[in-house]
Predict the 3D structure of the following.
Amino acid sequence: MERQSSDSGVGPSKARKCRGEREMHMKVGVLGSGIVGQVLGGGFAKHGHQVMMGTRDPKAESVRNWVAKTTNASAGTFAEAAQFGDVVVLAVLGRVLEEVIKLAGPASFKGKTVVDTTNPLADAPPVNGVLQFTTGPNESLGERVQTLLPEANVVKAFNSVGNARMVNPQFEQGVPTMFLCGDSAQAKARVAEIIRQFGWEPFDCGGIIASRALEPLCMLWCIPGFLNNQWTHAFKVLTH
């Protein structure tokens, strides 16, 4: 949502232009060539960022097709994409996340903002519409990633909505809320700008330990889908 500054003396359209001129076009490494990686990678490319998709097989037909139809996009190995990005997005299945980090090389993430979109989904099917996780209540995949990458700044985000609504969704009820958490204020500010660019309102939930609360939001979001085939919703925080 665009808001006019109380002291800028400019209208919303000019404010948008000024903010756009200040925006830094980033180099983004997206690790994962599945639907989430393709959607988020396409979103970054749409907004003028350079994107490299990291995957096991950069020459796979699905990857080559995605690169061919996506402006500012290329593909490489997990290591190449992690090294390429100023920002690195983890967009793989939670159960292979540690393996992907090893393939990319932990040193490739040093000093970088790492956006963790993953959830610790178990292979077992949902029970009465409720997904099963591999983690317990006092642990999270987000914390695990930060432990594996101690010299990176991990921010959990984009894990509480389906891929079809991740980039610039349109809701009649207003701008939806995207929850994020992480230990670095600077990294969270950077991710918050990405969230706004992607059409969401960021809501900072504190340190990476809050991943313990954010990851189960995936369970909650999926319940209407599994029970009633409703997949077009998002969360919204209301304040007064």
Q: What stands out?
A: Strands lie at 27-31, 50-54, 73-76, 87-90, 113-116, 153-156, 177-182, 201-204.
